[in-house]
């Protein structure tokens, strides 16, 4: 473990997509690569934090120097997060599936001469909101993400209020930005008292700046 301003701080980072099974061989997922969450974990480790990295099936490998908990589903991610608490800081960068298949099949669903399967959905737990609203044992700083395609600041501020996290890292993921799946990001950091627009930066540099903001916040507290 490296020395640094986050030495002795225990930080949870969620990252990647979740996979929600339809049957043993099929699942529903999303296009999250896990790149931004991985970069954040790496930046926090570089400043000396003890990072627990709860990750869905991502495209990029987890950074070295973290404790990895690999999960598939949103429910497993919530369980892993709850087993990881208490922490000083929690950063929720995962793209958690909003829905799971209500009763996934224990055996592979077969083609049945022209009869189509019907999938029924159930809502997944909101991990960020659950942790943000904990009455005891809540992390001192809870950071969520908001991927928006329009009215980014207004939607992200509403999300912050609704979920009751401390900060929201908002970004515009309209297709023309190339951010989703790309190596750069342009984010707006939303706190209760400030809105900071950051320039377009690599996801690594975005992560480093966020880690610096976290250091400053912990020094203030
Ligand atoms: O509501 P929305 O999915 O846009 O919120 C995004 C933020 O909430 C991200 O920080 C994401 O990690 C978190 N989230 C979560 N659990 C969910 C859905 C989103 O932790 N089920």
From TrEMBL:
It comes from Thalassovita gelatinovora (Thalassobius gelatinovorus). GO terms for cellular component: phosphopantothenoylcysteine decarboxylase complex. Its EC number is 4.1.1.36, 6.3.2.5. This is Coenzyme A biosynthesis bifunctional protein CoaBC. Its cofactor is Mg(2+); FMN. Transmembrane segments: none annotated. Residues 11-221 are annotated as: Phosphopantothenate--cysteine ligase. Residues 6-216 form the DNA/pantothenate metabolism flavoprotein C-terminal domain. The gene is coaBC. Binds 1 FMN per subunit. One of its GO terms (molecular function) is phosphopantothenoylcysteine decarboxylase activity. Catalyzes two steps in the biosynthesis of coenzyme A. In the first step cysteine is conjugated to 4'-phosphopantothenate to form 4-phosphopantothenoylcysteine, in the latter compound is decarboxylated to form 4'-phosphopantotheine. Catalyzes two sequential steps in the biosynthesis of coenzyme A. In the first step cysteine is conjugated to 4'-phosphopantothenate to form 4-phosphopantothenoylcysteine. In the second step the latter compound is decarboxylated to form 4'-phosphopantotheine. It comes from the Bacteria. In the C-terminal section; belongs to the PPC synthetase family. In the N-terminal section; belongs to the HFCD (homo-oligomeric flavin containing Cys decarboxylase) superfamily. GO terms for biological process: coenzyme A biosynthetic process; pantothenate catabolic process. It catalyses: (R)-4'-phosphopantothenate + L-cysteine + CTP = N-[(R)-4-phosphopantothenoyl]-L-cysteine + CMP + diphosphate + H(+); N-[(R)-4-phosphopantothenoyl]-L-cysteine + H(+) = (R)-4'-phosphopantetheine + CO2. CTP binds at residues 98, 108, 125-128, 145, 159, 163. Keywords: Decarboxylase, Flavoprotein, FMN, Ligase, Lyase, Magnesium, Metal-binding, Multifunctional enzyme. Pathway: Cofactor biosynthesis; coenzyme A biosynthesis; CoA from (R)-pantothenate: step 3/5; Cofactor biosynthesis; coenzyme A biosynthesis; CoA from (R)-pantothenate: step 2/5. The chain holds residues 220 to 440 of 440 of the full protein.
């Amino acid at each position: 473990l490296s020395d640094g301003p986050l030495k002795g701080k225990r930080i949870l980072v969620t990252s990647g997509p979740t996979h929600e099974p339809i049957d043993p061989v099929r699942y529903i997922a999303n296009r999250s690569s896990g790149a931004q969450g991985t970069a954040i974990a790496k930046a926090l480790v570089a400043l000396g934090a003890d990072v627990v990295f709860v990750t869905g099936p991502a495209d990029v490998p987890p950074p070295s120097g973290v404790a990895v908990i690999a999960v598939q589903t949103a429910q497993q991610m919530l369980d892993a997060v709850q087993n990881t608490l208490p922490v000083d800081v929690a950063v929720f960068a995962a793209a958690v599936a909003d829905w799971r298949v209500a009763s996934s099949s224990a055996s592979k669903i077969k083609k049945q001469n022209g009869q189509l399967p019907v999938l029924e959905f159930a809502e997944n737990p909101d991990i960020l909101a659950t942790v943000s609203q904990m009455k005891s044992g809540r992390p001192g700083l809870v950071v969520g993400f908001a991927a928006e395609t329009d009215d980014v600041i207004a939607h992200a501020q509403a999300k912050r209020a609704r979920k009751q996290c401390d900060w929201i890292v908002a970004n515009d993921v309209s297709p023309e930005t190339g951010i989703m799946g790309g190596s750069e990001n342009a984010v707006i950091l939303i706190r209760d008292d400030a809105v900071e627009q950051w320039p377009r930066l690599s996801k690594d540099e975005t992560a480093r700046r966020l880690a610096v903001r976290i250091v400053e916040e912990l020094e203030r507290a």
